[in-house]
Every structure is written in structure tokens, then in C-alpha cells.
């Protein structure tokens, strides 16, 4: 979206501060925000982003079906690149499953999950050396590894992320890894599990989808070495981008009249396929609303999908909108919008008891309804529940003045238009004079 005062914002990260600053830089606007009102998201804790990567090193990882390379070698190479690109502030660790026990005793093999590199400030040489020593060996105690990763990361106010890379389903239930994921989610410890599958059978896919869905994470069906590297880097970067603010959980409704009221902050919700959810934001006279939304496509969807963010009045009149579309090449679609009371076009009215000269000062709050909609549809066999993760950023700042000349609809562009018009007129006159001269010469000869 690129019209006037309605720029499109991209979030792969959706921090309120980032959204405000990004819009300000693009538009030459001040990046300050008003003081948060009651109900705003809590102040950002000063914790480092924490990521624990669980790597499957079971015997099946010897299979050579990823562009002619073994699954374990692809995973090792990707981890090396991820470790080299780690942000200095990120606390990173690696846990393995099935890496040490080569025998056939299931009771022993299903206890085989170890810390390969502890979560903390990363010595990149030591971490890469540890990864290089791995050889596919044993079983796949996925549920036990998830519990271990939660302990590795500890508790805190910010979101911790577990990245699980595996080529098959759990071979050690109980505990069932999906039940473990639900158990961890119910503890309220801000733990998100993202799953990446190196094998492509339906049972593995459904199990990894279930784990991701239970914790608000994402699932990726990995087909190439580069896709694995890029996805893990993206997940690490996402943790780094969002760790300073834990989104406040909210629940949008289908109508504005009973929608939750949002103050400036970052919020999380869930939205089903082809659903719309509504939230309310009070906007005072002289304020500008800046909002952005990201919908994570954490399961397989059909091609050609999109997300729409609308700001409407309480009566349903559209004020502004932002849209984004995808074609299965991304797992997040994002968009944003800006609107101020100066754009109200009569939707904001002054109190009837207010004198005419004080109307601008006494205008009541405007109730702006933010509507988040998506046009995604699930592929065959994909579960619709729970809904897809939604992250919504809301901020209120001082309204920005309209660009100079906006009343003409052209701004400073009228100078260029006038110049082009004069140049065209001059060219036409010269060309006509030359044509007449050539005709006259031809007739004389």
C-alpha cells in the first residue's frame, strides 16, 4: 500500500517501537509516542533473547534424500551457518535426542536426550565443534527432549523459543510430544516451539503441526539445505526482534460493539481461516493511530492468500485499510495502516454544549474499530483449530501534518507537471515549424 498517509508496514518482527520508527523514517515523521494509557502492554523487561535448538540425531538421520546429502550433514551445515550469524545478545543452546545410545533397549534409548551446548552466550568455535562430533545413533524421545529444553531455557517474562529439527515422529511415547507441548503451554512460561520436518510423511507432519499449534509456534516442511538454514535463521532473528516485549494475550470478537479495548502495545490472538476479528482503539483529537498486524501461517495452506487490516468507524464506515498477499513463498503475511482524527471527514463531532471556537479542543474520543481478516484456506487434511497466530501492534502518537500542497492533491508535484506541460508545448511548436519549413522547401523544388 503506497497511497498518501496509508503506508504498508512489514513486520517480521512487530515491536511497537520498530513499527513507529520504521513509519517515521519512511515518511519523515517524528518517532515519539504519547505516554501509554491504562491497560498498555507492560514495560519491556531487560532479558536476553533465549533459543534452544533440539536436533534429532537418531539412526534415520543417515538417510541421503536431501539433494543427495544425508539429513545429518545438511543439519550440521545449516547449524554452522546459523551459529556464525548469531546476534551477540542472543543466548543460544543445543540439545540432542538419540545421539548417544546405539543399542536396542528401548527403555534406555528413550532416555537419550542430552545438552550438547548449554543455553548462554555462545562461543561459536566450541558450539560448531560440538555439532561436528554428532553421529546418527539411536531413538527419538521427542517429548522428553521438549521437557528438557523448557528446563534449559528457564522461566522469565519474555518469550523463549525452542526450534525442533527432526526427520520422524516420536518413537518413545509416552509421553506423547503433543501432550507435552500442551502441558508446557498451560504453564504460562512464554515458551514457543517451532518445528521443522526433514521427512514428509503425513504422520510426522501431523505430529509436528500439533506441537507447533499447541504453543503458538510454526511448522515448516523442509525440502532443501538452504531452506533449513534460512528458516532457522529467521526463527532466531524473530526471537531477537521480539524478546523485549511479551505480547499481551487478547481475544477479538466478530463485532465492534463488544470488541476488546486496546491501549498502545503489542497483542497476540488466534484467527481461524477466512475469519475476521475486531478490536477497539480510542483515538483522541489530534492523535494518530498507527497499527500493524502479522498473521503466521503455521500450517499448510493453499496458494494465493492475504491479510487485510481495516480501520472503521463505530458505525462501520471504512476509514483506511492495508493489505498484503502471499503465494505460499512466505509463512507470515503482514500489513499496517495510519489514521488520524484529522482524516475523520465528519465521523468525529464536537459536544453540542461546546462553543464553536472551542470545538477543536473539545472533540470527544473517536472509537476506531480495527478489523483483521485473512483469506487463507487449509490444504486437505490440515486442522483448522486452533486458529493461526496473530500479532497486532497498536500505537498512538501526535497527528502528523498533511504534506504541503496536499489540498491540490499534487503537493510539490505540480512543479514537475507544469515543467512537462511547457516542455511539451515548446516541442510541439518547434516540431510544427520544422514540418512546415520542410513542406515549403519540397514545394519549391
Structure characterization notes:
It is a single chain. The protein has 445 residues and is of the alpha/beta class. The protein folds into two domains: 2-43 and 246-347 and 358-398, Sandwich (Jelly Rolls), CATH 2.60.120.380; 50-242, von Willebrand factor, type A domain (Rossmann fold, 3-Layer(aba) Sandwich), CATH 3.40.50.410. The chain has helices spanning 16-27, 71-84, 106-109, 124-132, 142-153, 177-186, 202-215, 225-242, 413-444, and strands spanning 2-3, 6-7, 50-56, 91-97, 113-120, 160-166, 191-197, 219-221, 248-249, 265-271, 276-283, 287-296, 305-312, 318-326, 332-340, 366-374, 388-398. The chain has a six-stranded mixed sheet, with helices on both faces. Strands 9-10-17-12-15 form a five-stranded mixed sheet, covered by helices on one side. Helix 6 (177-186) packs parallel to helix 7 (202-215). The longest helix is centred in the last third of the chain and has 32 residues, at 413-444.
